[in-house]
Amino acid sequence: MADMYSRESIIDLLKRRGVWHEITMHPAVNTMEEAARIELPYPGREAKNLFLRDDKRKSWYLVSVMGDKRLDLKAFRMDQGTRPLSFASPSELMEHLGLMPGSVTPFGVLNDESHTVSLYLDKSFWEDGGVIGLHPCDNRATVWMKTADLASILTSLGHEVIAFQVPEM
After folding, report:
1. Residues ≥6 apart with Cβ < 8 Å to 72
2. Is the pLDDT assigned to residue 105 strictly greater than 90?
3. Structurally, how many domains does the chain consist of?
4. pTM: predicted TM-score of the whole model, two decimal places
5. Helix, strand or coil, per DSSP, at residue 60
6. 3 alpha carbon, distance to own chain's centre
7. Which has the closest alpha carbon to 112: 124, 100, 122, 98?
8. Measuring CA to CA, how many Å separate 67 from each of 15, 38, 70, 111, 167?
9. How far apart are CA 17 and CA 92, in angstroms?
10. pLDDT of residue 64
């Protein structure tokens, strides 16, 4: 991979685009349970991110859902018409998104130069003001921004953003 996106380059990108955003600095968080212990300005709007692969390791998926939701992989598979899914390994995460476990974020697709990772965003992020909280490729910060702006930036850089309804569990 060429130059990887970092917290600084992502924040610079948001500033260059004139996108409203706020940044919350905090201790490193690797799980939603750890994030729940931090006082956040937009509680419940943080993204829970899952990096998945199909059983043939041919298709890759970054799925972002509201932090309080659970994703039923079988239901997601049926709704989206994918092959059987499982979690990708830390080495696959690094290979495809340039990220370490705990720092998974929709911004990671910016490091996917071959555009092999499909990004699925929970439709709920567009509701109730449309704010989403996500790591800027660094789990010591959360960037708060409008979901529509995130989708616009990523699509303008050639990455498909697929809005989906999280299947009920």
Report:
1. 167, 169
2. yes
3. 1
4. 0.94
5. strand
6. 19
7. 98
8. 26, 13, 8, 23, 15
9. 30
10. 97
CA distances (Å), origin 75, targets 50, 52, 82, 155:
15, 14, 10, 26
Indicate whether 13 belongs to any domain: no
Specify the CATH number for the domain of residue 33: 3.90.960.10
Burial label for 112, CB within 10 Å (0-12, 13-18, 19+), is buried
The answer to whether position 169 is within a domain reads: no
* 3-state class (DSSP) for residue 71: coil
Amino acid letter, 155? T
Which residues span the domain enclosing 142?
Answer: 23-69+76-164
Q: Determine, yes or no, domain membership for 100.
A: yes
- Does the residue 16 lie in any domain? no
- Enter the tokens of residue 9: 């380059």
Query: At 35, is the pLDDT very low, low, confident or very high (cuts 50, 70, 90)?
Result: confident
Q: Which helix (H) or strand (E) holds 119?
A: strand 117-122
DSSP 145-164: EEHHHHHHHHHHTT--EEEE
As given in the structure block, the two tokens for residue 2 are 């060429």
Percentage of the chain with pLDDT > 70?
99
Residue 124 token pair: 């709920």
